[in-house]
Design brief:
heterodimer; A: about 625 residues; alpha+beta; Penicillin-binding protein 2a (Domain 2); Beta-lactamase; 3 domains; five-stranded mixed beta sheet; five-stranded antiparallel beta sheet; 27 helices; elongated; B: about 375 residues; mainly alpha; two-stranded antiparallel sheet; about 0% strand
């Protein structure tokens, strides 16, 4: 190739360079115009927005209202707690003092570093939390070492506290940060924000709108290190309202103590008003463990525990009532007129009905029994035969008339309605026919019949009141009206219980406790306790034998229900003990404990001469109608 | 030896090198400012190492006559394509690696070096053409040479890096003798392809375009970066808030502040004055480069210089445009300023090529 051609070649390419030059100059002018517009023309606008970015809105947590017992003693309050945090900018300053901090705040070596690293992914303008729920000791450590640790912020915020720990845990519930689902569903109202602490379960949940306050806000300006330099605005929080419950903590504590470490439930109500005096479920959980961040492991442990500690057995679980159901059978018999106080049966330790043998719990038999002795000795044969005479439909009608098989309407969530079986019920649920033999099982509270402790407490109280069933509630009537929740009216069955029925049954229940009956251990000196034991078989005889051979003797579920005093009762209760054996030995003492406390508190000083029982037994024959 | 090297050293464009080092130095300072509260790494120290490494590589590139370099083009091109393939295989095998090859403590980004390979390849190819105007077979071949690595980068997928290969092709074809009607046709075709390409864009890519057009539409997501970057720039005003005093940067509102958005940090802390000076330095480097192209000894030199210029200019245009809100958000770094080894090395290699051509203008 000729050298000249070579140059010519080059010149052709170079000839077009000006196109490129002009494009590049235009490009730079464009960028310059962009810079001019953003940095000079719109400087004020963007400077204002940068300042906005330096303004922090800090939540000022409103303390939750206290939950008090009926005498104003705290069941749930708040304790002061502090969060120690550091802004991202100050972290480098802190690095050299990590060891000092680890020692001072009593962390495991290396914990603080991993804690910080865990939070590095969060938006960089949020402070890093070093320790939540720091105590006074931690604070004084920080203050004492201000020279070495200048960057740590101490933010106070209230934490829910349950001074009685596990006592009444199911009744009170607990609080946690609102979940995403709860936020979306809006069940906590439109004003709920992420990060809000809301009630979960129990009173905390149902009366959350009363207990929860309105958070305030502190608006501050921060410097380029993220430290507060100026407070711009302060909106103080509104504390939540206190809530007084009908619970008597003394009765509650007595019941918890008497329960020991057994599983089960106990409910005591004032039948005159429906006020719940005590409501416990075992095993329980410690609501305090939810107030600070609960670990995943701990939560799973609570949820997966086969003992179901989160279940409120007092209202959410139903169990066969066993012999307790005999009370309602007797009521049905008297109301229907198929039973008279003088009617007798002869118990030989069992009876044959519909071609099948039904055993009495006493193998050698009770001999001749009438209504009163049948209740006192809890004779099965007497009630098998009464059940056959009544038939399942009448049993169901009268049981339901006493509020069994329905939710009581207590102001707590998740109540179970229980089951009062009937042929119609069986067809609906199992699409199967009712066998006459099932009626005989139901007569002694076995088979499909299953009830909740709260239902039984109300039914017993209502019976003692002569057939007025007040709706159980844990927040006093007047407070509920103020909160805008109306109390459902008590119901009175139609036709009403005849006074004679009430008197006869009460007398029988009085005998259970006071006449060498099955419930002697429920007796309170001078308080005329009336009650009834119940023992419900939970597994078959074969299953029991197998467990026994494996060294795990399986016990029956035990019940004790009752009220006191016999006339115009002031307290009614139901106690259920899982695998408690017999109601008389394991459940009756719990009821006794509750009633004793009530008696000591309200009755002891002005002992009322109870009507001698002879007078009532005396008056019975005169009322005999048929 | 020294006697032979001396004339070369005299011809070396020291002014351009000084401008580049000045920009890089500002970069180190601003990277320090942007990452002063990070616990994990000291980015600015690493950046200094990258600059030193870049200078060494520049010295190597400069010391070899660019004509000798261009003889190695087939191998360079092959290595570039193979490394891009390797990236795809590694990405399939190791989760979380996208667009880079792990090599000990370093992450090598082949897409960066592909830019150099494309500049060299196109320059060699087009400078060997002896016809006054480019024939259609030339055009197709040139397009295919660029298309292969470009396609591989798109597969990563890295749209931003892929389009940086287009400017050297466009510049090469225009200077290489594309007929005027072809240039017009090219403009039309590019317009049509962009329109058609819109329909083949991935949703996240479309989202980027939407947010570019209307950043307030998604102020916490994609638009967040755009808005915060402009707030940083704009709040800097005329003189800026001073180094390490930028609240936007320090408070962590600026994402990627030490890499893609380093120019917003410059804008916030050094103000319009600072960003104007940086822009002026870039402009001077490019104008001096064009001067070299105008006086280059041969056609190969012209293409090498202008190819390199097109890559550098495109990066500056898109990155600064993105920061001030004239261009959509793409992951394109700002040469010399953004933190990153691969980008720094590529920039120094391209500068080395330009200086190389300039040094040998009058020496035969």
């Amino acid at each position: 190739m000729q050298l000249r051609d070579f140059y010519k070649d080059k010149e052709a390419a170079q000839a077009r360079i000006p196109i490129l030059q002009v494009s590049i100059i235009l490009g730079f002018l464009l960028l310059l115009a962009g810079l001019w517009k953003v940095q000079i023309l719109r400087h004020n606008h963007y400077a204002a927005r940068a300042e906005q970015n330096q303004i922090r809105s800090i939540r000022w947590v409103a303390p939750r209202g206290k939950i008090l017992d009926r005498y104003g003693r705290p069941l749930a309050n708040n304790r002061r707690s502090y969060t120690l945090s550091v802004t991202r900018k100050d972290l480098s300053e802190l690095e050299s003092s990590l060891d000092l901090l680890t020692e001072g705040l009593q962390f495991e070596p290396g914990f603080l570093k991993s804690q910080i690293e865990k939070q590095l992914g969060r938006p960089r303008h949020l402070p890093l939390v070093l320790k939540e729920d720091a105590g006074i000791g931690d604070i004084s450590f920080i203050e004492a070492h201000r020279q070495e640790l200048p960057a740590i912020q101490v933010v106070p915020h209230p934490i829910r506290n349950y001074p009685e720990d596990e006592v009444a845990a199911h009744l009170l519930g607990y609080v946690t940060e609102i979940s995403e689902n709860q936020l979306e569903s809006g069940i906590f109202g439109d004003t709920a924000k992420p990060g809000d602490i809301v009630g979960q379960k129990g009173v905390e949940r149902v009366y959350d709108h009363i207990l929860r306050g309105v958070d305030g806000k502190k608006t501050v300006r921060v410097d380029s290190r993220g430290r507060e330099i100026e407070t711009i605005d302060m909106i103080p929080p509104y504390a939540g309202n206190n809530l007084r419950l009908t619970i008597d903590i003394d009765i509650q504590r007595a019941a918890e103590r008497a329960f020991g470490d057994k599983a089960g439930a106990a409910v005591a109500v004032d039948p005159k008003t429906g006020e719940v005096l005590c409501l416990l479920s075992r095993p329980a959980f410690d609501p305090n463990s939810f107030a600070t961040r609960i670990t995943r492991q701990k939560w799973d442990q609570l949820l997966l525990d086969p003992q179901k500690p989160m279940q409120n057995r007092a209202i959410q679980s139903r169990f066969p009532p066993g012999s307790v159901f005999k009370i309602f059978l007797a009521v049905a018999g008297l109301q229907e007129g198929v039973l008279t106080p003088t009617h007798t049966e002869y118990c030989t330790g069992g009876t044959r009905i519909y071609g099948r043998r039904f055993a009495c719990w006493k193998k050698e038999g009770h001999g001749t029994v009438n209504l009163h002795s049948a209740i006192v000795s809890s004779c099965n044969v007497f009630f098998y035969r009464l059940g056959r005479k009544l038939g399942i439909d009448k049993i169901a009608v009268h049981a339901k008339a006493m509020g069994l098989g329905y939710k009581t309407g207590i102001d707590l969530l998740g109540e179970d309605p229980g089951v009062i079986p009937s042929p119609e019920w069986k067809r609906r649920i199992y699409n199967a026919n009712w066998y006459p033999g099932e009626t005989i099982s139901v007569a002694v509270g076995q088979g499909a019949v299953s009830l909740t402790p709260i239902q039984l407490a109300r039914a017993l109280g209502g019976l003692g009141m002569g057939g007025v069933y007040n709706v159980p509630h844990v927040v006093p009537f007047e407070d509920r009206t103020r909160a805008g929740t109306r109390l459902p009216a008590a119901f009175k069955p139609d036709p009403p219980l005849e006074p004679r029925t009430v008197r006869l049954i009460s007398q029988g229940l009085w005998g259970v406790v006071n006449e060498f009956g099955t419930g002697r251990r429920a007796a309170v000196q001078g308080f005329d306790v009336c009650g009834k034991t119940g023992t419900a078989q939970v597994i078959s005889w074969e299953g029991r034998a197998r467990l026994k051979s494996e060294g795990e003797p399986f016990q029956d579920n035990a019940w004790f229900v009752g009220f006191a005093p016999r006339d115009l009762p002031e307290i009614a209760a139901a106690v259920f003990v899982e695998q408690g054996g017999s109601g008389g030995t394991s459940a009756a003492p719990v009821l006794q404990a509750m009633f004793q406390v009530y008696f000591d508190k309200h009755k002891k000083k002005q002992p009322q001469p109870g009507v001698p029982s002879e007078q009532i037994t005396f008056s019975l024959p005169s009322e005999r109608v048929n | 030896m020294p006697k032979q090297i001396l004339p070369y050293l005299k011809q070396c464009d020291w002014v351009m090198l000084s401008l580049a080092l000045a920009i890089a130095a500002v970069g180190v300072v601003e990277i320090y400012s942007a990452t002063q509260y990070e616990l994990s790494e000291s980015f600015y120290v690493k950046q200094i190492y990258f600059i030193i490494l870049g200078l060494v590589v520049l010295a190597l590139v400069v010391s070899l006559d660019y004509r000798l370099l261009s003889q190695q083009v087939p191998y360079i091109y092959l290595v570039a394509v193979l490394s891009l393939l390797l990236v795809l295989f590694i990405a399939a095998a190791i989760h979380g690696t996208r667009g880079w090859i792990p090599l000990g403590a370093f992450k090598i980004q082949p897409a960066e070096f592909a830019k150099v390979a494309i500049v060299l390849t196109l320059s060699r190819f087009l400078s060997e053409n002896r016809t006054h105007f480019l024939t259609s077979s030339h055009i197709i071949k040139a397009c295919l040479l660029v298309g292969l690595p470009l396609g591989l980068i798109l597969l990563q997928p890295d749209l931003g890096s892929a389009i940086t290969l287009a400017p050297p092709l466009a510049v090469g074809l225009v200077l290489g003798g594309l007929r005027r009607r072809w240039i017009l046709a090219g403009v039309v075709v590019v317009t049509l392809i962009s329109a058609a390409g819109w329909y083949s864009l991935k949703p996240y890519q479309k989202e980027r375009v939407y947010t570019f057009l209307e950043p307030e539409r998604d102020p916490s997501g994609q638009g967040y970066q755009a808005i915060q970057s402009r707030i940083a720039m704009g709040s800097g005003g005329l003189l800026g808030k001073g180094v390490t005093q930028g609240s936007q940067t320090a408070l962590g509102f600026l994402p990627e502040s030490h890499t893609d958005f380093i120019f917003s940090v410059v804008g916030e802390e050094l103000g319009f004055a600072g960003s104007f000076i940086i822009l002026a330095f870039y402009f001077l480097i490019i104008m001096r480069s064009i001067r070299i192209a105008q006086t280059a000894r041969d056609k190969l030199g012209v293409f090498l210089v202008l190819g390199s210029v097109s890559v550098l200019f495109f990066h500056i245009l898109v990155n600064v445009g993105m920061v001030v809100g004239l261009a959509p958000i793409t992951g394109i770094p700002l040469p010399l300023l953004s933190y990153g080894g691969s980008s720094m090395l590529t920039t120094f290699i391209l500068l080395g090529l330009i200086i190389n051509v300039g040094m040998r203008r009058y020496i035969y």
